[in-house]
Amino acid sequence: MTAASTPSATTAKGIDPRGPRFTAGVVAILFLVVIGLALVGLANPAAATASLGLSIFNAAVFLWAAIRGVQHHPYGFFFKKVIRPRLKPPVELEDPIPPTFAQGVGLFVTVLGIAFFFVVGPIALVVAGAAAFVAAFLNSVFAYCLGCQIYLLLARAGVLGRKRPAAA
Amino acid sequence: MTRNARLTTFETMDAANVAIALAGLVLAATLLGVLHRTTQGRARSIPTRWKTDSRIVSIDGVALGERATLLQFSTEVCTPCKSTARVLDDLAARTESVTHVDLDVTHRPDLASRYRVLQTPTTLILDADGAIRARIGGAVRRDIVVAELQKVLEPQKVLAA
After folding, report:
1. Which residue range forms the structural domain that includes residue A131?
2. Same domain flag for B91 and B57
3. How large is the ipTM?
4. Residue A4 to residue B62, Cβ atoms within 8 A
5. What is the pTM of this model?
6. What's the domain range around B116?
């Protein structure tokens, strides 16, 4: 067993770190809308349905980005085409793996909210939406790195990170 | 009766109340972010109650520095690990007999557990015997690492800064 000091595998070319932060900002705003609609939806079924619909949309975007990689994120595409040309080039590029991991976590939380909606009602979308909002907001505004904070907790709990077969 | 009372509260969830709730959430998230930022990069010492096993570092395949080691724990899903590696690499290169080791524990949760690593990057500053003298959670700040390294290397000077 080598616990050697090998740097983690990095892709040859990275992504502009501002892309995922822009994306997270859009996601944060969408989750504020989800929460707002769900709160109104506690008494108003139409608003609850709208909140559910937007949650499903958010989950679909998370799913896409988690599977294809954050470099193929639809909002990231907007950033690349419209915003990035107006900015200075980035100081450094970053690995797409950490933000892609965060998309998977976002997907999990959003799907959990959708599932519990059918059990406990719109309050599930408020709770899940708040969790997703906080993570996306911190990422966008404070460059918070979700993978840094929760990956090892999950790995230590045995959920992630078991050694892959050596013949990879 | 209770149910009716609750429904009434919900019905008062008008636009103004929803706006207040959302503003509260944004404020809470901002406070969390500020709090989180202040905890990152701080150097702490190891509680004496920890078992010797988790106070002295000895890992197969990891060669420690002659006078001190900057042992960094990283994972693949960690963006600030790269900038931390750059700072520590540079410090080790400028300081005689000090080594920087960047340990990828993506598939080694056992090591993360043994040294109680909860987040990445986590940096342990080890003395010549491999004993942990300080630990830094989150992206490192160069001045803090230099100060901690200085304590380990006394009385010799760190050639960095």
Report:
1. 18-79+94-156
2. yes
3. 0.85
4. yes
5. 0.85
6. 43-153
